[in-house]
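Bumping my old thread because nobody answered last time. Still need a sequence for this structure:
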């Protein structure tokens, strides 16, 4: 009995893939409204002092959006990110579970913290394959919108043109920075989640109810915040590198030097508030969706 309680469940990368996709959808459902608000506040027309401003702040913007457009107004434009985030989280959870499976010496033996961290790192390696080109294209489009000139008609046009003009290397420009950003942060992300979930779930309940709501939400939320805390500085470097004109930077160290010279250390934490406000609820929802889906899949197909 005691042994049975300690035994960890058999890991199924396939189920983790599907459940990860559900988690990704939940991440977006919880996170997208805050993103809509952020973008509306960022882009509302500047009023001169006597004029009427559309939104006076975050809360005002939420209230006006919901009263004019209903709750669905907060979910405008969710299609495109959904098509990216759900597959990304599916691949991420797949990589994580594959890492766990590869390191599991014998069934039922618990993984060490280092092994869990390394499994999370593997998730970061897996997602980079799609995240690196995705980020390169996204950042180029985001910057072009703010600078007013349209070089690319959209994501597909951007990808084809990069590929035709300079080959696959150009599409994958920034891959090393994406790895630096995502490998250790994913390791920490998954380790934090597993560690806190276990820590917060009372010993006796671990085998009986693998789903304890507060533990999952708190562990997921904190994991999300920690992920961003260590991922944001390399993220700032990556965005700068991926959107810079060719030849502007000789290498990564060069980007770091430039950011530090122009803005100091706080330049590495740009966009901090918007990101952190969103990270807790989004990742709490992500892990909840993941755990519920995994439980459902285990119930539907126990032997898979
Ligand atoms: C972790 O942080 C990186 C940003 O730097 C972000 O792209 C990624 O989506 C985050 N992961 C999760 C699950 O929030």
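Sorry it took so long. Here it is:
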């Amino acid at each position: 009995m005691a042994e049975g309680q300690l035994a960890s469940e058999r890991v199924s990368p396939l189920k983790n893939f599907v459940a990860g996709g559900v988690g990704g959808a939940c991440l977006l459902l919880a996170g997208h409204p805050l993103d809509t608000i952020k973008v509306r506040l960022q882009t509302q027309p500047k009023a001169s002092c006597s004029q009427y401003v559309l939104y006076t702040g975050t809360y005002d913007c939420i209230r006006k959006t919901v009263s004019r457009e209903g709750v669905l107004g907060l979910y405008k434009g969710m299609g495109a990110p959904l098509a990216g985030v759900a597959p990304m989280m599916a691949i991420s959870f797949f990589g994580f579970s594959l890492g766990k499976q590869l390191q599991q010496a014998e069934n039922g033996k618990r993984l060490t913290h280092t092994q869990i961290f390394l499994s999370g790192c593997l998730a970061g390696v897996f997602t980079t394959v799609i995240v690196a080109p995705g980020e390169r294209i996204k950042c180029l489009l985001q910057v072009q919108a703010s600078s007013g000139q349209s070089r690319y008609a959209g994501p597909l046009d951007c990808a084809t043109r990069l590929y035709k003009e300079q080959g696959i290397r150009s599409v994958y420009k920034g891959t090393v920075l994406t790895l630096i950003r995502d490998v250790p942060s994913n390791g920490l992300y998954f380790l934090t989640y597993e560690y806190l979930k276990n820590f917060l779930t009372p010993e006796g309940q671990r085998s009986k109810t693998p789903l304890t709501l507060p533990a999952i939400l708190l562990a997921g939320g904190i994991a999300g915040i920690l992920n961003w805390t260590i991922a944001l500085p390399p993220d700032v470097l990556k965005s700068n590198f991926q959107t810079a004109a060719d030849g502007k930077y000789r290498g990564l160290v060069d980007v770091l030097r430039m950011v530090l010279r122009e803005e100091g250390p706080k330049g590495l934490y740009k966009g901090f508030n918007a990101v952190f406000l969103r990270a807790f609820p989004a990742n709490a929802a992500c892990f909840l969706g993941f755990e519920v889906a995994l439980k459902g899949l285990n119930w539907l197909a126990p032997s898979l």
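Residues 14 and 94 are 7 Å apart (CA to CA). Let me know if any region looks off to you.
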